């Protein structure tokens, strides 16, 4: 509970998760000190190959009791494909957290940072700065459907999109409310009601309806095909972009790709009701190709910590971490190899923590 300080469940997981999480914690501790936030970190070794090797499962049977009462989960990465198939490790841990804790929002900031070259020619920091809000539980990703007459000339395959009023309205409320709390107060809805002529008109209808509760938020909508073009051609246009599961999946990879390296992008899997903890993690995985060398970029993990503090009611602390990241990325000496620098993971993490300490 908030009253007795924050309790965070920390799960480093596999590979570079073990290297970037300590830097994330270093920065969170520095921010906690500066903003007088009382945080306790509880470390968990499950959701990793090491745990699986010892116990034969990714999680203990009482994992929900162990981490379900925490204020949030701070997650590194899971996956070690040489030892264990990805569908076993991911479905046996991270995807269970998302589902069982009803983390129906996937939130990803898209922000061009100093020192990170954008693949979009001529774009400068400040010109790309928005959020993608993805519906994380229903929509196009359903298990409703099937295959008949398999292997014959009459073979039939169907998979249904499922949109529920509860499911659509709750993601729209989150997105409008989120947009309402931003400076620009603007929201864009991703649709395709010209082609997907049943569920997408329904989505549009609910956007129209839910928007009435947020009169200060200006909103527009684009069909997904032209929307992807605008992400590349006019990224300055966007503030908060809300989308169904499939469209959001695509946009939440395309957006961060427009801002450079995978090593700096964070993501929140959010249960807005607070009934269950939300989970904050970098977008990247366990990177077995560079694991154990101490050269991974810790910025995605650190930025995920900033999102976590913002979500838990400490927006100034979150913003201070993001500013410290910007300060440090602007200095070539602290850039890791994926950004063309020579700094190691710890050097970069310490520099970001140092900015927060110096400002205290
Ligand atoms: P990956 O994100 O781990 O790595 C892709 C490429 O980006 C690699 O060349 C890697 O070295 C580089 N990279 C990633 N993060 C970096 C960082 N912080 N600093 C510098 N370079 C970085 O994706 P990959 O290789 O497809 O998957 C590896 C494992 O991670 C698999 O088991 C996969 O299932 C798992 N995975 C887990 C995720 C999660 O826990 N949320 C997300 C994505 C993948
Ligand atoms: Mg994806």
Automatic annotation (TrEMBL):
<comment type="function">
    <text>Has multiple catalytic activities. Apart from catalyzing the oxidation of (+)-tartrate to oxaloglycolate, also converts meso-tartrate to D-glycerate and catalyzes the oxidative decarboxylation of D-malate to pyruvate.</text>
</comment>
<feature type="domain" description="Isopropylmalate dehydrogenase-like">
    <location>
        <begin position="7"/>
        <end position="352"/>
    </location>
</feature>
<comment type="similarity">
    <text>Belongs to the isocitrate and isopropylmalate dehydrogenases family.</text>
</comment>
<keyword id="KW-0520">NAD</keyword>
<dbReference type="InterPro" id="IPR024084">
    <property type="entry name" value="IsoPropMal-DH-like_dom"/>
</dbReference>
<dbReference type="InterPro" id="IPR050501">
    <property type="entry name" value="ICDH/IPMDH"/>
</dbReference>
<dbReference type="InterPro" id="IPR019818">
    <property type="entry name" value="IsoCit/isopropylmalate_DH_CS"/>
</dbReference>
<comment type="pathway">
    <text>Carbohydrate acid metabolism; tartrate degradation; 2-hydroxy-3-oxosuccinate from L-tartrate: step 1/1.</text>
</comment>
<keyword id="KW-0479">Metal-binding</keyword>
<comment type="pathway">
    <text>Carbohydrate acid metabolism; tartrate degradation; 2-hydroxy-3-oxosuccinate from meso-tartrate: step 1/1.</text>
</comment>
<dbReference type="Pfam" id="PF00180">
    <property type="entry name" value="Iso_dh"/>
</dbReference>
<dbReference type="GO" id="GO:0009027">
    <property type="term" value="F:tartrate dehydrogenase activity"/>
</dbReference>
<keyword id="KW-0464">Manganese</keyword>
<protein>
    <recommendedName>
        <fullName>D-malate dehydrogenase [decarboxylating]</fullName>
        <ecNumber>1.1.1.83</ecNumber>
        <ecNumber>1.1.1.93</ecNumber>
        <ecNumber>4.1.1.73</ecNumber>
    </recommendedName>
</protein>
<dbReference type="InterPro" id="IPR011829">
    <property type="entry name" value="TTC_DH"/>
</dbReference>
<keyword id="KW-0560">Oxidoreductase</keyword>
């Amino acid at each position: 509970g908030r009253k007795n300080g924050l309790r965070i469940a920390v799960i480093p997981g596999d590979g570079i998760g073990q290297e970037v999480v300590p830097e994330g914690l270093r920065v969170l501790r520095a921010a906690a000190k500066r903003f007088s936030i009382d945080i306790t970190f509880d470390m968990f070794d499950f959701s990793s190959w090491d745990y699986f090797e010892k116990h034969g499962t990714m999680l203990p049977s009482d994992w929900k009791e162990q981490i379900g009462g925490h204020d949030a989960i701070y997650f590194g990465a899971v996956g070690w494909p040489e030892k264990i198939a990805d569908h076993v490790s991911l479905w046996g841990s991270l995807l269970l957290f998302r589902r069982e804790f009803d983390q129906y929002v996937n939130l990803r900031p898209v922000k061009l940072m100093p020192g990170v070259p954008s693949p979009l020619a001529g774009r400068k920091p400040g010109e790309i700065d928005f959020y993608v809000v993805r519906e994380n539980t229903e929509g196009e990703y359903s298990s409703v459907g099937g295959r008949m007459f398999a292997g014959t000339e009459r073979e039939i395959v169907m998979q249904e999109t499922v949109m529920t009023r509860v499911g659509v309205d709750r993601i729209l409320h989150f997105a409008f409310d989120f947009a309402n709390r931003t400076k620009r107060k603007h929201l864009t809805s991703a649709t395709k009601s010209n082609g997907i002529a049943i569920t997408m008109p329904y989505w549009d209808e609910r956007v129209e309806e839910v928007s009435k509760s947020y009169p200060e938020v200006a909103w527009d909508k684009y069909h997904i095909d032209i929307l992807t073009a605008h992400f590349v051609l006019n990224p300055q246009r966007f503030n908060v972009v809300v989308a169904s599961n499939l469209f959001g999946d695509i946009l939440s990879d395309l957006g961060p790709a427009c801002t450079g390296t995978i090593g700096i992008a964070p993501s929140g899997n959010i249960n807005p009701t607070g009934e269950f903890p939300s989970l904050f993690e970098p977008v990247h995985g366990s990177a077995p190709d560079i694991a154990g060398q101490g050269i991974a970029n810790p910025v995605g993990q650190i930025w995920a910590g900033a999102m976590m503090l913002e979500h838990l009611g400490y927006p100034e602390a979150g913003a201070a971490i993001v500013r410290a990241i910007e300060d440090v990325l602007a200095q070539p000496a602290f850039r890791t190899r994926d950004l063309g620098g020579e700094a190691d993971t710890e050097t970069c993490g310490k520099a970001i923590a140092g900015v927060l300490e110096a400002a205290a």
